[in-house]
Design goal:
With 141 residues, this protein is an alpha+beta fold. Helix content is 18%, strand content 41%. It has two domains: 30 residues; 102 residues, Immunoglobulin-like. It starts with a helix and ends with a strand.
């Protein structure tokens, strides 16, 4: 009988170890959903922001309100960050137009903000993919 008791104890131990590993593995998943390394989702959206990475200080702010980007056209320096602040009756997003602006791609946000750091000089055109008449331009010097 001691052999059965020992096997039963081992089986319970193994079950406890496997269950513990599953719980720890589930807690260690990364819920971050950043579209690119230079973007940070921050605030009310369906995408979770990484809590250990604060949003960079904004060099320019674009209000997303009344179905428009305001100001629609801005000029910044290379390395500066633009923050779009969403506060409208409809949800919106920021999506780059063309190859140059490929990395500009926010989640859909109703209220909150999203930032992108521009590291390379150029002209970056963008729009709201839900409302294509909403357009803007970031000129990086």
């Amino acid at each position: 009988m001691p052999i059965c008791r020992q096997s039963s104890s081992r089986a319970r131990f193994l079950v406890a170890v496997v269950a513990g590993a599953l719980v720890v593995g589930g807690c260690a998943s990364n819920g971050s959903n950043n579209a690119a390394t230079s973007t940070t989702a921050a605030a009310t959206s369906s995408a979770a922001a990484t809590p250990t990475t604060p949003a960079p200080a904004a060099a320019a702010t674009v209000e997303v309100k009344d179905m428009k980007f305001s100001p629609a056209d801005i000029t910044i320096k290379a390395g500066d960050t633009v923050t779009w602040k969403f506060d409208d009756r409809a949800p919106h997003a920021v999506q780059g137009i063309g190859d140059v602006a490929l990395g500009i791609n926010s989640p859909i946000i109703h209220k909150g903000e999203w930032s992108h750091t521009f590291t390379t000089p150029g002209v970056y055109r963008y729009l709201c993919p839900l409302h294509p008449e909403m357009k803007g331009t970031v000129t990086v010097q």
